[in-house]
Automatic annotation (TrEMBL):
PANTHER family in alphabetical order: OS05G0510400 PROTEIN-RELATED
UniProt domain F-box: residue ranges: 2-38
Pfam families for this protein: F-box-like
Protein name: F-box domain containing protein
Coiled-coil parts of chain: none
Native organism: Parasponia andersonii
Transmembrane segments: none
Length: 450
């Protein structure tokens, strides 16, 4: 370290993921100690072990080891001369702490507490480009914070803002025209229509709204927005997205009465929805990649008409407790998306298609000559039935060259082995890839293309 250029040492120290490591570096050498005050990024994390220490300070023979979390952070901020990025958070494992384990009047980990925020933002807010705060839900959920008003007043050059696990007021929120990235996650927001978000963050290019409560008829209306991930756990009356520059959208919602999407530049859409009574969208003239997850894929795909721009499609039907007759067919997929080159079928989609094939077969349809690759998650009930289904698909996809098959992990090894051997023997022109899938785990591939 003594022989490295100072700029490189500062870069290394700025990339440390926990300020505790930065503090340790200060006692290693004079060089590291001097350089530690020049870091551009500070990440301050309250771990479970430090939380426990903070609760036993009186019995601790070394009080410095259990110095209050906020005090340590403020000391680090005041002694740093070049900070551009700050992250302060509690470890995820602390999220499992019950309300009974936390005193109601505790605020030692209430990180969006206005008084605490004002103290350190007055010192460094003007120079910050990025702020990330992940609060302690047990202390923050029941009291509203003016964090947004403070940040918008004291951080005029901020580009990226991330706030998690708290209750946010929009009272006093000022315009932040320079802000380009905003993430609000698992929090309550007192902006039921998102009017303040649209008004005060007009330059947003990236917006992530994950599990944001308090919304009734939210509307995103941002002309510069390019990437959006919006996950809604409740059921608002309506959802509207007006974003002429948007190119990538992931939207997860339940049953909004109305869903309006006007995003003419969209090229990548991932939509997870049970159903919408009213679904309005303008033609997606640039859409290339589409992922759909819904209980009624047949109806949802009809909303896209016959889209000739989509090249990559992934579909799935989530598990449901109700008895719902299968409706999804290959014919529907081919009719809706005639120019596909890649198709990925989740376990629910494959099961519906195979069930309808068993009862009706594959109806006459135009072959999918452009389709080059299929990925399928299969649950093999009868090997011969699954093989016959695959055979019917391959006959209609004359130019298909790659097929990746993931077999359910609970299928017996003999059945799986027989299935794999038959596929390789019956269709040698296809390059196969094999693996296993199971609910709640990542797909596991056991072979490459052969």
């Amino acid at each position: 370290m003594e022989h490295l250029p100072p700029s490189l040492v500062i870069e290394i120290l700025s990339r440390l993921t926990d300020s505790a490591d930065l503090i340790r570096c200060r006692v290693v050498s004079k060089t590291l100690n001097a350089m530690s005050y020049e870091v551009r990024s500070l990440n301050h994390l309250c771990t479970l072990s430090s939380y426990i220490k903070s609760r036993t300070r009186g019995a601790n023979p070394h009080p410095q080891a259990a110095m209050p979390f906020k005090t340590v952070f403020k000391d680090l901020v005041r002694s740093s001369r070049s900070l551009e990025s700050v992250s302060i958070s509690v470890e995820k494992s602390l999220g499992t702490k019950s309300y009974d384990e936390v005193e109601d009047d505790d605020d030692d980990l209430y990180l969006t507490e206005p008084g605490f925020l004002r103290e350190w933002l007055l010192a460094i807010g003007g120079g910050l480009r990025s702020i990330s705060i992940s609060d302690f839900w047990s202390q923050s959920s029941w009291r509203r914070s003016d964090a947004l008003a403070l940040i918008s007043s004291l951080c005029n050059n901020l580009l990226e803002l991330e706030l998690k696990n708290t209750w946010l007021s929009v009272d006093g929120l000022n315009p932040m025209p320079k802000l380009t990235n905003l993430t609000l996650e698992f929090l309550r927001l007192d902006d039921e229509d998102l009017n303040k978000v649209n008004e005060c963050f007009p330059g947003l290019q990236v917006l992530n709204l994950i599990g944001v409560g308090g919304l009734k008829e939210p509307k995103i209306d941002l002309k510069h927005l390019k990437i959006c991930h919006w996950t809604i756990s409740n059921a608002p009356l309506s959802l509207t997205i007006l974003a002429p520059s948007l190119v990538e959208l992931k939207l997860e919602c339940v049953k909004p009465r109305s869903l309006v999407v006007e995003t003419p530049s969209l090229s990548n859409l991932h939509l997870i929805i049970e159903k919408a009574e009213e679904f309005k969208m303008k033609d997606f003239l640039c859409l290339k990649s589409l992922q759909l997850e819904s209980w009624n894929l047949f109806s949802l795909m009809g909303k896209f008409g016959s889209s000739r721009t989509i090249k990559m499609l992934a579909v799935n039907v989530p598990k449901h407790t109700e008895s719902i007759a299968p409706t999804l067919t290959f014919e529907r997929v081919f009719d809706s998306f005639p120019n596909l080159s890649s198709l990925k079928l989740g376990p629910g989609a494959w099961s519906e298609m195979e069930a309808l094939f068993c009862s009706k077969g594959l109806e006459d349809m135009v072959g999918m000559n452009g389709l080059k690759e299929i990925t399928a998650h299969v649950l093999i009930d009868e090997v011969d039935t699954s093989l016959l289904f695959i055979s019917s698909i391959l006959k209609r996809c004359s130019n298909l060259s790659n097929m990746a098959v993931l077999v359910h992990g609970e299928v017996g090894p003999r059945i799986a082995s027989k299935f794999v051997s038959k596929c390789r023997a019956d269709w040698p022109r296809i390059r196969w890839r094999w693996g296993f899938w199971k609910e709640g785990t990542e797909d596991s591939w056991v072979s490459d293309w052969t």
